[in-house]
Design goal:
Number of helices: 10
Radius of gyration: 50 Å
CATH architecture of the largest domain: 2-Layer Sandwich
Helix content: 40-55%
Largest sheet: 5 strands, antiparallel
Number of strands: 12
Shape: elongated
Number of domains: 3
CATH topology of the largest domain: Beta-Lactamase
Length: 465
């Protein structure tokens, strides 16, 4: 069922409920007003009889005898009737003449003796409204009663109900049709936007929705959808760049590996040449494996996969092990490694991933440090913004990051020097992996240039231990 049809049916149903409730209230108020008018007329007529009784009684009061018992006779419908009754129910006086049945009998007669009562009853098949109250003539207590037919009021009620029954369904139908037309006009821009969205594909990601004039919800929806399309286009461009960069990164070692294997397969190669070719091929294979692992890690992190195995990590031990691993590379480049970490400094984290982040930072720092420089690896606990943090920092004395490159330090395949060879500059994934590992632990990575020269990269991890 379409939204337009649901809105029309809902509006029609609501209109039907409102009309039914309004009709019920109207009929009740109409009935109450008619009964109040009848009661007021009966009170005036009964008061006139009381005045006559107090003045000496109606002419027929002493002589009239009444009937008591079952309803017989005929009720005068043309006008109201008034009676004076004895406490036992005998009609002492009737404005319609003798032979009339008492207006008040039984339980109502007993109640009228104690105070004013009003009620509706049926006499000879006709609905009658009766008012009765106690009175007294010169010598005895009496019951004064007045009655009037409700035929006029009943007829008015019937006519009102007939009008409501006849006009109600028509009003509901008109309301439903109006809601259908109004919903169609309101949803027409949404239909246009839906069709426009259906036409947008990956081949024209720059296409956008036309924003309707005005500041209503439809215009706000169009603005929001355009913002979503902007984000999707950016994600698509990043995905394409990622695929292109990954293909380019994989192409270089694959090409080198193929060349080495082709050279090794040529006849007449010496054993030493074959060994050199195999060694070079093994190096390219290791680079391919490392690059594939980095790409897999980024893909898993981007998909939100939970790849962490947190445990308590002794940071001084972890930092010392990382420094020993890179000690040989540091000696070759004449770089000094210094490790600073307080005793008993632990953090709950994935040991392997944290070590991977530290290794990436040390590799970058040593590669960019000048001969005779120093690389500092430090860890400390601090408190920022009401949260306990463990901060791991790697500082070098190299040229630092170019100022325009700092906002893009942690982007995939980003390099400070785009013209530098990959053997020297890496794949551009190291710092991106550091950033992913930090965010996976609920922290963040930061990079700045030191005032005295060199770069400083830090990993902040919440200390939940």
């Amino acid at each position: 069922m379409s939204l337009r049809l649901r809105l029309a049916l809902l509006f029609a149903a609501a209109t039907a409920v409102v009309i039914a409730a309004g009709a019920a209230v109207f009929l009740w108020q109409l009935r109450a007003a008619q009964i109040a008018a009848l009661d007021a007329g009966l009170r005036a007529r009964a008061d006139a009889v009381v005045a006559q009784v107090s003045a000496g009684g109606p002419p027929s009061l002493p002589a009239q005898g009444g009937q008591q018992g079952q309803n017989q006779g005929e009720f005068p419908t043309a006008e109201a009737e008034s009676q004076v009754l004895a406490p036992q129910g005998t009609v002492l006086y009737s404005s319609a003449g003798s032979g009339q049945l008492p207006l008040v009998t039984g339980e109502w007669l007993r109640r009228a003796a104690g105070g004013t009562v009003t009620f509706s009853t049926s006499i000879e098949g006709e609905s009658v409204r009766v008012l009765a109250f106690p009175g007294r003539d010169s010598s005895r207590p009496v019951i004064v009663a007045a009655g009037a037919s409700t035929a006029v009021a009943d007829a008015a009620q019937s006519r009102a109900r007939a009008v409501i029954v006849a006009a109600g369904p028509a009003a509901v139908a008109v309301a439903g049709l109006g809601a259908w037309l109004l919903a169609g006009a309101t949803l027409r821009p949404v239909t246009r936007m839906r069709r426009r969205l259906a036409d947008i594909t990956e081949h024209n990601p720059a296409a956008r929705l036309a924003v309707p004039a005005g500041r209503d919800e439809i215009a706000a929806l169009a603005v929001t959808m355009n913002a979503l399309l902007d984000r999707l286009q950016l994600a698509l461009e990043r995905q394409r760049d990622f695929v292109a960069d990954a293909s380019h990164e994989l192409l270089t070692p694959l090409t080198a590996l193929r060349a080495e294997l082709e050279l090794a397969s040529r006849p007449g190669r010496s054993r030493a040449a074959l060994a050199t070719a195999v060694t070079a091929a093994a190096g390219d294979t290791d680079r391919l494996i490392h690059l594939a692992e980095d790409l897999l890690l980024l893909a898993r992190a981007q998909d939100g996969a939970n790849f962490l195995r947190p445990a308590e990590v002794d940071l001084p031990v972890l930092l010392s092990a990382a420094a020993r691993t890179f000690a040989g590379q540091a000696r070759v480049r004449d770089v000094t490694l210094e490790v600073r970490a307080g005793p008993a400094l632990t953090v709950t984290a994935d040991r392997d991933r944290l070590r991977q982040a530290i290794d990436n930072l040390l590799s970058n720092a040593i590669r960019h440090s000048p001969a005779g420089g120093t690389v500092n690896l430090a860890a400390a606990r601090t408190r920022q913004g009401g949260q306990d943090l463990v901060i791991i920092e790697v500082c070098d004395e190299g040229p630092g990051f170019p100022p325009g490159f700092l906002p893009h330090v942690f982007e995939r395949f980003s390099r400070a020097d785009a013209g530098r060879g990959r053997a020297e500059g890496g794949t551009g994934l190291g710092l991106a992996i550091v950033d992913f590992i930090a965010r996976a632990h609920g922290g963040r990575a930061a990079a700045v240039n030191r005032p005295g020269g060199g770069a400083q990269v830090s990993v902040e991890i919440p200390d939940r231990g």
